[in-house]
Amino acid sequence: MSEPVREVPAVEVRDLVMKYGSVTAVNGLNLTVEPGTVTAILGPNGAGKTTTIETCEGFRRPQSGSVRVLGLDPIADAHQLRPRVGVMLQSGGAWSGSRAYEMLRHIASLHAHPLDVDLLIERLGMQSYGRTPYRRLSGGQQQRLSLAMAIVGRPELVFLDEPTAGLDPQARRSTWELISELRSSGVTVVLTTHFMDEAEALADVVHIVDEGQVIASGTPQELAASGAQNTVRFTARPGIDVESLMLALPDDVKVDEVSPGSYVIAGHVDPALLATFTAWCATHGVLTESVLVERQTLEDRFLELTGKALR
Ligand SMILES: Nc1ncnc2c1ncn2[C@@H]1O[C@H](COP(=O)(O)OP(=O)(O)OP(=O)(O)O)[C@@H](O)[C@H]1O
Hints:
Elements: E1 11-20, E2 23-33, E3 38-42, H1 49-56, E4 64-69, H2 78-81, E5 85-88, H3 100-109, H4 117-123, H5 139-151, E6 157-161, H6 169-184, E7 188-193, H7 196-202, E8 205-210, E9 213-218, H8 220-225, E10 230-235, H9 242-248, E11 254-259, E12 262-267, H10 271-283, E13 290-294, H11 298-306
Parallel strand pairs: 3-7, 3-8, 5-6, 6-7
Antiparallel strand pairs: 1-2, 1-4, 8-9, 10-12, 10-13, 11-12
The protein binds adenosine-5'-triphosphate (ATP).
């Protein structure tokens, strides 16, 4: 019997090390991006996200380790990769005197099957500044143009470095929609972001990067669920028998009276646990005044793993 053909990963980074003088920016980083997915690289400032992405884009040569993009070497095979990969840099990327329509038409002309420039400009709400020189655009407008430049060639894979940094909420939302559309049309998207909600809303897979390494990977839900336990906070009369309640609940669940009449149940919280809890209350004549189930978010997990806030 023949082996099933394994699809070439869109991006494969192995043991990447990158230094700037004595600063180690990337410290043995491993990352695989499956084709057709949206992958978010999430990390605090200085974690090594941009350096990693720039190495994948072929702007930096790996000092140690290896990088493959669509199965190719980003530097040696740059010529082959250029028409297949779109790149949105964190800043700039356009000539200061050029205008959005000009830039996009120029890039489109270099590709075999580009997107329709007028439609793209309209889709990104860029009509009002499509003929303004790049240097006179606001930061957010430049950002939109960079995104348009990354995708106008209809790439198989796009790298977006902080695609919504500095955008107003409406522009951010329409960028999200565009990224979802790219994914629906089969484009692989690799983005870096500081925004937890962005990773949660868009990404199939999130890699949390800290100090130059991937320290956790998974779907946003898996990452949130893999961390500290969830809690149920409730209030009731002070001094209820927490030992008895704990005996009724699964072994790994803890119950504390954190202040008189205020209780916390910590553990794996699921509907069965809540049912057992309320049944115990009924049997013991305990009337709860408020019950609040707190689920851990990706943000909680991130803080727990890195000890850092994102900004
Ligand atoms: N050109 C450079 N010269 C010297 N050090 C650099 C250079 N670029 C980045 N660094 C350092 O390398 C480390 C990683 O930087 P990098 O920009 O890759 O991180 P990042 O995760 O993208 O950060 P941010 O979220 O702030 O953009 C940081 O300590 C940074 O100061």
